[in-house]
Amino acid sequence: MPVPWEALIPFGLLVTMFGVTGTLANVTFRAANQWKPPRYGLERWDEMMIARDNRLTGHNRGQTSDPVIPSNTSN
């Protein structure tokens, strides 16, 4: 049975478009997370630490060892 070569062009286009879309979505999600992978399966403790990091640094993924809230934040 011969290979239908004319079907390879649309197949290649579909694979390329899904790949580009997935890559752009990954870049968008990482850019919103300070270039770190997204968090999954968060527990209550993780949520409390995220809230703490947000209060200390102004971003959910920012971390600092200084326990004092800076005066220039709006929170």
TrEMBL record:
PANTHER family in the cross-refs: NADH DEHYDROGENASE [UBIQUINONE] 1 ALPHA SUBCOMPLEX SUBUNIT 1 (PTHR17098:SF2), NADH-UBIQUINONE OXIDOREDUCTASE MWFE SUBUNIT (PTHR17098)
Stretches with biased composition (Polar residues): 60-75
InterPro entries on file: NADH_Ub_cplx-1_asu_su-1 (IPR017384)
Membrane topology (UniProt): Single-pass membrane protein
Protein family (similarity comment): Belongs to the complex I NDUFA1 subunit family.
Function: Accessory subunit of the mitochondrial membrane respiratory chain NADH dehydrogenase (Complex I), that is believed not to be involved in catalysis. Complex I functions in the transfer of electrons from NADH to the respiratory chain. The immediate electron acceptor for the enzyme is believed to be ubiquinone.
Keyword check for Electron transport: yes
Compartment(s) of residence: Mitochondrion inner membrane
Region (Disordered): 54-75
GO CC terms, sorted: mitochondrial inner membrane
Organism, as annotated: Mycena maculata
Entry keywords, A to Z: Electron transport, Membrane, Mitochondrion, Mitochondrion inner membrane, Respiratory chain, Transmembrane, Transmembrane helix, Transport
Major localization listed first in the record, in broad terms: mitochondrion
Keyword Transferase part of the UniProt annotation: no
Protein's recorded name: NADH dehydrogenase [ubiquinone] 1 alpha subcomplex subunit 1
